[in-house]
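Escalation from tier 1.

The customer reports that the assembly of two entities below gives different structure tokens on two consecutive runs. Tier 1 could not reproduce it. I'm attaching the input and our single run for tier 2 to review.
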Amino acid sequence: MTIDKQDIKAQGPLNVVACIDASESALGVCDYAAWASQRMQVPLTLLHALDEEKYPARTDMTGSIGLGSREQLQEDLVNLDRERSKLALKHGHHLLDEAEKRVLASGVGSVTKRQRHNNLANSLVDLEPESRLFVLGLQGESSTAVGRHIGSQLETVIRSVHRPVLLVPDEFSAPRSAMLAFDGSSTAFRSIELLAGTPVFKGLPLHLVMVGADTEEHRSQLKRAEAALAPQGMQVQVAIRDGDVEQTLHAYQEEHNIDVLIMGAYGHSRIRQFLVGSTTTRMLETAKKPLVILR
Amino acid sequence: MLGSIQTNWFSNIRGDLLAGIVVALALIPEAIAFSIIAGVDPKVGLYASFCIAVVIAFVGGRPGMISAATGAMALLMVTLVKEHGLEYLLAATLLTGVLQIIAGYLKLGALMRFVSRSVVTGFVNALAILIFMAQMPELFHDAASWHIYPLTAAGLGIIYLFPLIPVVGRILPSPLICIVVLTGVAMYLNIDGVRTVGDMGQLPDTLPIFLWPDVPLNLETLMIILPYSTALAVVGLLESMMTATIVDDLTDTTSDRHRECKGQGIANIGSGLLGGMAGCAMIGQSIINIKSGGRTRLSTLTAGVFLLILVLVLDKWLVQIPMAALVAVMIMVSIGTFSWDSIKNLKEHPLSTNIVMVVVVVVVVSTHNLAFGVLAGVLLAALFFANKVGHYMLVSAKYDEETETRTYTVVGQVFFSSSEKFIESFDFKEAVENVVIDVSRAHFWDITAVAALDKVVVKFRREGAEVEVLGLNEASATIVDRFGVHDKPDAVERLMAH
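Tier 1 run:
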């Protein structure tokens, strides 16, 4: 992506941003972010988003307004918010300090700690101009272990940001191989370009997997993709499998014991996704290994 | 915008539902009272409140703000209803909506930046006074029986004292208790001459139905409704923008003003088509909503839907509500809307600010049109500002014996307000050979300033002096209307530097 390169030139080194919260996944996020930042040789930013909207509002059901009601209400709300924010800030500081210790111990040179008063998606959009990769835990603070276990904000985040997002499980193990879910679309070729330009997966075996019929057209598309990646020092293997997208990708991943799955995100509109669901969402729900979502 | 459905609708479900119910209960007496002010059946205000609240919940730009039939709008419709009837009011409501949507697309909400704090305070106070004054005819009309005074007093007593009762007082809305108690008393005692809501006109008995206003579609109709619609559109947007600012401050969030303008327009069109009057955002109700814990669009929707359900279920009881109870509730609303701090602040604020605020109140109360008051306030505030900035201009003079040159150095702002002072700063009667006017550290803001400089130069020439003007290019760069502070990052620097 040429735009990306221009950004890099204009703004100096872009950071890997690790999104820290109070859940178990923060440890995994730290480790994977440290790994990515070392491989890419860029600074690491630890981000804690203070999401105020989660806090319930205080309730007063009297429904009457009297002398100076507005001023009184304003003062009450400001005081309430201040107390909450102070606590949240302190809590966040603590989380960030822990995270900083952890990533420094794993050998990252340059770490910045940041807090923002906004929800996660908006915070990341704000940081976008200075970021190259976002690292998030698959299991967020407000999600529970049962049912849909992805962090409640992941979908919004993926939809909002225009940088690659690395979604990671709680436990870290250094990735040794990666695969790209390839569908021959122009988006998929942009993903290939992006991969060719990053040192993260350099030297690792990279599988290009296409789900669909084994046709001449598909083969030639894969060839083109392979040709784009090979000069960058990647060990590319290609495969075409038929079947349900999600199951096939999972099966291939298990068969070849692949650590990181790379895919494009949300090709369809939100309304269409609401009606028919999308592969990305389903992959998010069932993922047990790191996942890279490209935009 | 991000994660909007979740955030804007379902992030605070319990608080929103409860607050919506509290607001609906408070909206019913207001909608009835405002219908009576406008001179239409209570059902017109109730349908309007339902429709506006529901529509604005989806299309508004300020989640958590309550819009419905309002006093400010009702006061503007009185003569239209009296002279031409309800159908013309509905047509005017539709046109109001169209005008507001146009305003939204033209981004006229941005004009709100010219409305200063003191104008807003004046607007709010004037609105409170108008609502209060609108209750007076009910208290002092010819047929009023003496019963209304003790009943109103009792109502106000309940409203303000009930919340002091431990536990119960914090759960039940006191205006509701006031209405229930007074209705019970009036029905039990069966007093003659106590007017009830039923005496004031029809209440809704069905769901609102789609109606095209029964007016001839011709130029004559347009000329009748256009002045009213314009005033309604302006006042509706003004109050909505001001309320949005208040809600922004209370909740520490931001709103989308242009979307709110369009939303108000769509809501009014909806209201007009369902037999309702025009409305806008309500300051008092929005404060009640926030105070009760409402934050998102869901609270506004709940208020609208619950209002209609209540009205349809309770129609037998609503007609029995004595007007005294409504008057008590409306007096509470006006007291709650009035900015009492502004009275306290009169002593601390500068005189010009106070004058602006008081002028807004006086103009509104005498014309019953909030738009005129705001216009007067904005103009006055602008004049005061021009006057203040005009003081920031200084001309210093220096005489150099050797070259027989008098040098005037102009520093500061030269424009219509300071140009006279500018001219007076030069000594034309002094006999000198050479005059240098250095304007490189001055700003010439308009044509008046340039004309003043020309005049000065001509005058010196007439006295036989050679005149040289230095730095005119820099000084007059500010005249170009779009002198782009906003499109050139270093423009502010350059402006302040020379």
